[in-house]
Amino acid sequence: MTKKLSISFVLLLLLIMGTGSEAALRVQCPGDTNQDAQWTGAEVQPANTTCMHIVGSDGFAAMADGYPQYIFSFSNMTGVPIDQVSDTAELNAQSPAPQIKVREGQDFYLTLSTVPMAMRPDLFDAHSVHWHGFPNATPYFDGEPMATVGIFPGASFSFYYKVPDSGTYAYHCHVEATEHMQMGMLGSLSVAPAQDGQSIGGFTQFAYNDGDGTTGYDVEYPILITGFDPDFHDANLNVQPLPFAAMDDRYMMLNGRGYPDTINTNPAGLTPPTRPDGTTGKVSQTVNALITATSGQRVLLRIANLSSVHFSTITIPGITMRVVGKDAKILRGQDGTPLYYNTNTLTLGGGQTAEVLIGPVATGTYFLHTTKHPELSNRNEDFGGLMTEIVIQ
Amino acid sequence: MKRITEKRLILMVSVITMLLLPGVLVAAIPGITGPDFSLTAKTGTVVVDDGSNIFMWGFANGTGSMQYPAPTLIVTEGQLVTVSLTNQLPVNVSIVFPGQTGVTATGGVPGLLTNDAAPGGTVTYTFTAGQPGTYTYYSGTQPELQVEMGLVGALIIRPLQGPKYAYNDAATVFDREYLFVLSEMDPPIHVKVQQGKFDEIDNSEAYPVAWFMNGRAGMDTVAANNDPIFPHQPYAALALMQPGERVLVRMVGAGRDLHPFHLHGNHHRVIAKDGRLLKSGLTTDLSEGAFTTSVGPGQTFDAIWSWTGANMGWDFYGHKGPNGEIGQACVDAGVALQPGESLADHCKPIPVAPPDNKDMFFGPLYTGSPYLGGAGPLPPGEGGFNPYGAYPFMWHSHAEKELTSYNVFPGGMLTWALVVPPGLLQPEP
After folding, report:
1. Residue A20 C-alpha from the chain's centroid
2. Which of A26, A28, A149 sits opposite B361 (nearest CB)?
3. B309/A136 Cβ within 8 A
4. What is the dihedral of CA A216, B293, B287, A301, to 10 degrees?
5. A144, A267, A322, B195 — which has fewest CB within 10 A?
6. ipTM
7. Using 50, 70 and 90 to split pLDDT, how confident is the model at A1?
């Protein structure tokens, strides 16, 4: 059965390739005629509409100790001409996957394309996007492939979302979820509330439609907790059986980097990893995790844990965290009772998110880090891992 | 895709057979109703989804088969509950009832936490079911080994207020209820127990490699209750409901680890923890919305989950007029609204076109249609295990490692909720 299926997949792929793989990539975005998922020239952007084009592929990322990791992930191809997407996306997996930021009530058209895994031509894995936590989801746009469909290499699937309630969500591939998530197909996703733009309680940006400004902020930062198990990634690269049972995240990261890479502000991203053949890989880690603000500002940290293994507890010595939301729900009882709380530690398991407000804070440099101290390492290199800095000027 | 076995597909069909039998009432939480219970501790084996077996110690209902998890004990608030335990295992066994007060043990032999039943002996526990809620019970004798071995189950205390209440509170009313007992195992420990090599067991080094929901590993979780191919794992972990219904989700941590339980499809609202309503006084509501709840060992949570499909920007029933009209023409044709959908989205077609069939992987539960109750053309041999067009949502541990059994994905701590088109499900009795 499996062998027959594999053969039919190979035949299908040959068929797709034989008819020109570019032909099968298709971006669906209203008003966008040239399929680059944005509006240029004579193209007219419909009101309240936003589009994005991401592509699933493989690639490499450099761990903070210099070790290159083979990864699967998405890259942002919004604005890339459709006939250049396959070449541009090849070996371009990003760690973490591109951040998605949308606003409550928008019509969001997200096109996922898949290109073949350059390092694993034996794989014909489909990909999907699971908007983690989407309220009142339909399976068709939920990305869980046993309930719906996945998209094979060389083709595109367009998701449509009426952007729901505000809050911090996340997204990831749900195809062969344990493998694809451990390999890195995960990213931040947040929804700004409709209340944004109004002036309430001295703020114009908010985590939620709070009505009173209590979730207002001046600057926001996504903090995505992830982990890589180097043995799993190496086994995948070397076409070996995958060690699911032995899986343990020994590179714990924030926004796809371990400390001190988390505070590297080079706008070009980290130095690209060296591939096994000695060539230099593509830049894959463009997002740092450095948090900067001025002493009078209130900072919103949108924290999500998508580690495949670990619960993590974070702390910021010298700063009290105020938790105002969890799992994209404002912390209020059904009767409106405010349940915000102040704390020095916050524990999140895989698939949990929280909104934390900090500030105003006195000037200085603070550390946001895990209290599970073995996670403060980049494998066997100490003083690394799940930590970043908060610089208040 | 490449790892889905035919066996699992067949199990999925048995899900559907539950829907195929009109008049069959689906008992949402199978168990035994008290207040007097007779349990026997004995050996047995459970089946993991890869076909392997694990030697177990567990509780049986009376003279029945050992089962994992133990029989779900269902009582009503205020009842005097007696649980008599007969021990057929070679070691002492007992039962503790966390969350209950005034538990007395009669007979047996003195143990550390309570009286034990010695091998071949008996002991009886008595308590008044004090407060309604979801609880666990398990062996209090060397629990670091005996809970791992399977001597653990759930206890449900129903409130006096009525049969469809979780607590004596109007906000806890529900249409259907489901229980999810979350656990994991380190199989080599079970082998050593079976071989009697107790001296070689180091519980501090336990390393689980198999994960379970209601004692079954995914997708065995969706096979019917009391399916004869699981003689020691009688409880399904499948949640069925119709749009708009309020579903009470009872979660129990029954192993050694903390699990982030993620419910696809919608948020849930955690209304109680450890058998206590999340309220301060009579009015102040402390419940929390969530899409993932961390369930620790020995903890329980009760949550209300519902799915309406409202406000998604398109008509998830795929309504069309009598002549195929869509949009306003369909509304004007008088096509009726169905449960859950928003008037604003009525008759609106899905706003994106699907890829060509040759470019897609088809999940076994895909109907060929994005619509609830829909069906569309599928390539030969693809999909088709969801003939009534339910909306399936995976409910699973989001520690993704736990979606495996012995290194094989998918498996472990995963199951499904099925939102069934209106009119197909009997009301819960």
Report:
1. 30
2. A149
3. yes
4. -10
5. A267
6. 0.94
7. very low
